[in-house]
Design a protein that fits this description.
Blueprint: E1 7-11, H1 14-21, H2 25-38, E2 43-48, H3 51-54, H4 73-78, H5 85-97, E3 101-106, H6 109-115, H7 120-125, H8 128-131, H9 141-153, E4 159-163, E5 170-180, E6 185-192, H10 201-215, E7 221-227, H11 231-239, E8 243-247, E9 253-258, H12 260-263
Parallel strand pairs: 1-2, 2-3, 6-7
Antiparallel strand pairs: 4-5, 5-6, 7-9, 8-9
Length: about 270
């Protein structure tokens, strides 16, 4: 298996660096990208928002104001929300020039919209067929796209990107859900761009991560829970060595499970 896919969480920290060094925020952000590229990182990740869309103007400070004198969250976030579509497009192009992927977590619909053409992830989540078993309760495609992006990208630890070998574009993701480090068990969640269904790619990814779960992370149990209607996901689990255990009483979901003895067969 290749090295892990590494994401450098840059957020909006470059604003503070720019202030400390007396340079522009854009130059500071590019400096972050340069350092990530030198370190062999695969993806540069930022955060996109406007203060007015994420906090109340009267929201109180939750930090030590003797060290950071700003009195409200709104005022603090305003210090870090100067970038918009133009600036992130510049950073996106610069990141690609450095041989890395670019992404940014949107905190509002406007940010999600202008990031759409910059981030492969959003193109995957814009297809309703990719969303039906992930966030079926969301009211609109826009909400689905926003929630999915935050669900997988805001806390990227323990999440793997699935990339097309030819284009090197992200086409899906696989992650540990409900990881219990005490009991050493986890649930596995995954999705794949519709254009790549039926090619055995997800089965291969599930096998790889399941092997890592037992051999590297020393888990004792890994589960996959699917909707009854999601036959494709059930086939992936079965082909990857999982076996159907049960259907939850009063639920539309099946439980497929694998234990260490079975894992040796992968």
């Amino acid at each position: 298996m290749k090295k892990p896919y590494m994401i450098a969480e840059m957020g909006v920290n470059f604003y503070d660096t720019a202030k400390a060094l007396g340079i522009s925020a854009l130059d500071a952000a590019k400096m972050y990208i340069d350092k990530a590229a030198e370190a062999g990182v695969d993806c540069a990740k930022f955060q996109s928002y406007k203060a007015s869309t994420i906090v109340s103007k009267n929201s109180p400070a939750y930090w030590d104001t003797t060290k950071e004198p700003t009195k409200t969250q709104y005022e603090l976030f305003q210090k870090h929300d100067g970038f918009g579509e133009k600036e992130y497009k510049i950073l996106c192009d610069y990141t690609h020039e450095k041989g890395m992927d670019f992404t940014s977590t949107p905190f509002d619909y406007a940010s999600a919209d202008y990031l759409y053409d910059m981030v492969d992830f959003y193109k995957i989540s814009s297809n309703p067929e990719n969303l039906s078993f992930i966030f079926p309760a969301q009211a609109s495609l826009e909400e689905c796209r926003y929630v999915l992006a935050n669900y997988f990208l805001r806390n990227p630890l323990g999440i793997w990107a699935i990339c097309d070998k030819q284009s090197e574009q992200m086409i899906g993701s696989i992650k540990f859900e409900k990881l219990d480090e005490i009991k050493r068990e986890a649930e596995l969640g995954y999705f794949l761009h519709k254009d790549f269904w039926g090619k055995g790619l997800m089965t291969e990814a599930v096998k790889e991560i399941t092997f890592l779960a037992f051999q590297e992370f020393q888990l004792k149990q890994v589960r996959i829970i699917t909707h009854v209607e999601n036959v494709a996901s059930q086939k992936v689990a079965l082909h990857a060595g999982y076996s159907l255990k049960r259907q939850f009483k009063g639920s539309d979901r099946y439980l497929e499970e694998i234990v260490p003895k079975d894992a040796r067969l992968l």
